[in-house]
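In response to the reviewer comment on reproducibility (Comment 2.3), we provide here a single inverse folding case reported in full, input and output, so that an independent group could reproduce the run without further information from us. The structure tokens appear first.
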């Protein structure tokens, strides 16, 4: 099953959460298939796999679809070989990563927009405001908060400065891990508009050697794949048996076999409908059947998502 199936990442180049996953491929030295999706929907072939989950990145392994980088990294750790993504305290690293991304996402976008010379294209701004961020990302709307956003980001990055001050190569010590990737991809996003400006604005000099080490992990070995081919790969196989969850569901909440929706609780709150086939305190798995892709298991993290009876 998964051991034989290829890792297929649906992503686009400028997506920071995708960059986190690409760096995880690099850290592990993995070969993978790269399906480039549009930065602005519609993405009908990806929707066929995800049931409408609207965000990127998405990892496909045969007929198993992993939504959200916060589940994709643990899934890679379980399914792939190579160096560990969690050289220290895996659960703490996941908790800290989750909270860092959550707490800083809007401010980081604000810094990026502030550093950019021009607005993003109108269609992009419209889509992100209506369907994803629920905030206007134009310079006109974001500029009034620029100084505050710099403060917010700077206050968090001070922890990174301090963590690296003893001369360690990576946040957890001598070996790179997921924690490095979650901090680095947000800094990568902000610097994307104008490196020199952002380096000065955020006083990044003390952490640039670390950032360069993390980005030098690279992306592993991607090979391009078409979206049609990815759909065919899902259709050609059945979802893997669910044997990795720690417990079955008990107590409150929908029962296995019942109809549910799973919805992000922050951005792009699009419900995905299916039949609950597995859940523990970390992950929920739903089954859905798609005309083109066949039987699918969709995997979501519990943190940051809401499961409800449909
Ligand atoms: N918590 C999610 C966040 C993903 C996310 O917000 N991705 C951005 C791109 S980096 C996105 O989907 N933007 C809207 C879009 O591309 O449709 C994860 O870790 O995967």
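Designed residues, in position order:
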């Amino acid at each position: 099953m998964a051991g034989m199936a290829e890792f297929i990442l649906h992503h686009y180049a400028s997506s920071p959460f995708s960059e986190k996953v690409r760096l995880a491929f690099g850290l592990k030295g993995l070969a993978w298939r790269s399906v480039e999706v549009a930065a602005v929907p519609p993405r009908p072939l990806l929707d066929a796999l995800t049931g409408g989950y609207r965000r990127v990145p998405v990892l496909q392994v045969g007929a198993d679809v992993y939504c959200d980088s916060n589940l994709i990294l643990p899934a890679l750790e379980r399914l792939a070989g190579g160096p560990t993504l969690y050289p220290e305290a895996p659960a703490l690293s996941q908790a800290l990563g989750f909270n860092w991304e959550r707490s800083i996402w809007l401010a980081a976008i604000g810094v990026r927009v502030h550093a950019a010379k021009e607005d993003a294209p109108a269609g992009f701004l419209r889509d992100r405001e209506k369907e994803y961020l629920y905030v206007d990302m134009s310079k006109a709307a974001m500029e009034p908060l620029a100084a505050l956003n710099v403060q917010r980001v700077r206050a968090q990055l001070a922890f990174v400065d301090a963590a690296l001050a003893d001369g360690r190569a990576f946040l957890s010590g001598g070996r790179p891990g997921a924690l490095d990737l979650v901090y680095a991809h947000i800094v990568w996003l902000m610097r994307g508009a104008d490196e020199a400006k952002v380096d000065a604005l955020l006083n990044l000099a003390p952490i640039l050697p670390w950032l360069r080490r993390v980005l030098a992990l690279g992306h592993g070995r991607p090979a391009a794949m078409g979206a049609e081919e990815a759909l065919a790969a899902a259709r050609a196989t059945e979802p893997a048996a669910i044997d990795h969850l720690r417990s079955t569901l008990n107590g409150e909440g929908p029962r296995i076999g019942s109809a549910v929706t799973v919805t992000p609780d922050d951005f792009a709150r699009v419900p995905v409908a299916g039949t609950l086939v597995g859940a523990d305190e970390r992950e929920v798995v739903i089954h859905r059947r798609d005309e083109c892709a066949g039987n699918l298991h969709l995997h979501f993290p519990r943190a940051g998502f809401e499961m409800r009876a449909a």
